[in-house]
Please model this.
Amino acid sequence: MRFFLNRTSEGTFLPYRCVSVLCLFVACALSTSGQTLSYSTYLSDDQSFPIAALPVAVNATGETCALFVNYRAGAKLRSDASVVYSFSNIPVASSPFGGNTTLVAIDSNGNCYLAGNGVINPTAGAFQSTPKSPPDSPSPFVVKLDGSGNISFATYLGGSGVDTPTGIAVDNSGNVYLVGVTSSNDFPTLRAHQAALATPPDLFIAVLNPTGTGLVYSTYWGGNGTESTPSIAVDGSENAYITGQTSSKDFPTVSPLQANLMGSSSAFLIKLAQSGTPAYSTYLGIQNTGVGVAADSNGAGYVAGYTTGNPTSPGAFVTKVSSD
Model:
């Protein structure tokens, strides 16, 4: 693999070169006005792997963690697009049935967090040192890389069924939040609002401590239908916000804005306190799917997604749920 880096002066787009048909660029970083480029750079021209829409995470200082090359490699960039380090073979080995890193997050100290399904080398004291899943369904994992690219911890996090992580976040204390869908009846739980699997697939919402040696809390969340596409955000007070889609008529609700399923499916929004106690859980709309979620400093949750509620004019939506 080759890396091509060329930091541009602000307002100038001057890529170094791209010598193949498929080239990955990371971080077209725009200025605060949105009218000029701060930098734009190629990272790889390796044609041996497919390149698709790839995850990226940025912290408040402009440091970036990005995944690319079949979701098994990536890099950390400084705010000027220079490379701090690059990495490959995460997971360290792929099973015959596949295994890739699909999620990335970064904290305020520049530590990168990776999650996906595959085979890893767990670190000493890891919360889960062995995978429980069947050979044809690689187990979820979480890996933390420090500011220099060294592995701080690596652990599995899953049960004996099919578990798919779909969202990751990290809070100011370094706790790592992982959400996804599970069919495991033995997914690890702690301080769970819902201790048992309902009708698979259900959501899982799990939080690892900063050292990856234990859980802060972990719970199932679902009903008699299907839950899917969860994503997560965390605010400055370490409240977690989760959205996605459910078809369950008995989806667990708490102080709901919308108490009942309308149509065959609905978006939802869950807010959990630092301890895992729900502040609220609500359906959110009709025939729609929550895709992205964010939170502000006042504790409000924001959901973006798409709707097919009106068959003649499907479209996108953005919803804000206040903290009171």
Summary: The chain has two domains: 89-221, 224-324. The longest strand covers residues 37-44. Confidence is low (pLDDT under 50) at residues 1-23. Residues 166 and 180 are 5 Å apart (CA to CA).
